[in-house]
Amino acid sequence: MLTPRFEITQTDEDVTIIVHAPYANIKDAEACVDGTDFLFTATPYFLRLQLPGKVEENDTSFGSYDCEKGDFTLRFSKVNKGEHFDNLEMITTLLAPPKKKSTVIPNIEVIGNPSVASVDISEGNAVADSGNNWFLPQDNFAGNSTLLVNFPKYGFANKISGALTAFEAAWIKEIIDLPTPDTTLETERKSLREQRELSDFSEEHYMADLMQSDCIEPCITYTPEWDTLKKDQIAFNDSEVDLLKELPNKEYLLDAEDVQKLSLNLVDILYASCYNHRTTLGDNTSESGWTINKLSSTLCWFQNFTSLDEVITACFRRSLCYPLYRNWELSLKVFEDVKQVLSLGRIYIVKRFCEIHNLFNTSYEPRYILNQLYIKDFLIWLQRIPESLIESLLSALSNINPNKPSMGLDLVELETAAYSVQEEDFVIENTIHKMTDDIEMMSLNGAKEEKPKNVYHVNQKFFKYLLSSSSSSDSSDSETDSSSSSSSSSSSSLDSDDLDNEPK
Prior knowledge:
Layout: E1 5-10, E2 14-20, E3 30-42, E4 45-56, E5 62-66, E6 71-78, H1 91-94, E7 118-120, E8 125-127, H2 141-148, H3 169-175, H4 189-200, H5 203-211, H6 217-221, H7 238-244, H8 256-279, H9 288-295, H10 297-301, H11 308-319, H12 328-343, H13 346-361, H14 368-382, H15 387-397, H16 411-444, H17 454-473, H18 478-500
Antiparallel strand pairs: 1-2, 2-6, 3-4, 4-6, 5-6, 7-8
């Protein structure tokens, strides 16, 4: 059976559910409600929703079918008039089946090891999850679970271990910089990442982008879509709904530390996404998946952070080490983009992750692995988090002020040297232009009998410029020194004679 695309709207008295089922057999279409449960069937479609509040079918309820669009429009009355149903935009959360009531310890889903679906604590037996039937319980799992405890963990909420051993090492290196992720300890990831960034940082590339900023200016002045959107205007498009309705709806047992780590990972991934959007001017390219993957320490190094300062420093460092455009002002602009995206709330953040999921799924490299390890679970979790969590994260980000010295890349020294060279080049260039203009003036006045007074001064400057250039080119060569000295004497004598013969 297929899960159809659907949309839900509400008023103070009614709830309207629009089901898009263009290939449905109208004759056997049925829809019914029972409290918070809604059921729709029409071969080959099946849809079951759990609404945030109770609805009922009465005399004001109705249903219609648009044969051109293939849409069923079904309206039901709210049992409690005026009640507001929250999270009707969160597609995945509405697909949850009703929870089973139990007086014993509830089932706990184990998301740490992909080879096990769930564990029933009350019974102590492994049971297969309906959404992951290909992961079968194994007889010797009890022995293996002891060994897996000490394995390095990664993935969403840092709950997965040993998931990459089945993949070829060459494939993994295409998308992950962390060496041997299944054996490298989590405590070593940060230091290894920073060492790699120091070796990969190109001073020449950074200074070139600093001094030749014309190609970067369009990226900095670009107005992304999040600068023009209003929070109440944001909605999922059809492709996003198609993705979200296929995700399994599951709850995660997370403590406060897990939530903090996920929030920091969220900022890290959003920064990479915003950088890609701004530098492509909103039009993704074949390198967009690589850019997001490479700039995110979460996705590229499986790193977990301990503070927002640490996250933003990592984001800035990677944006100055790897992508095509490596500019401090651009990195600052992307940082402002992240705060703007967070200010638009959950729906827009989920939309950004839907785009990432699509880019990874269509990437030539096996980045679909990152969807399995991180992005899919983020899409599910983000639909459940309260807006207050995002607001507190945004408030904390407003107090972060990244600076160049804290990057550890000697940016201040590099810029000082670059500007110093630029100033020297500017002086030399102006001198040459001035000399050229004077020589051209001499040529124009050459037909006159009496030479202008400044001709001799120009000659003097010209010879002095040549002398200073030649003497600085090779001060260690004795023959050159001698020649320069001789030339200098001759030149000085010539200048003096010329000056003595200067017309009165």
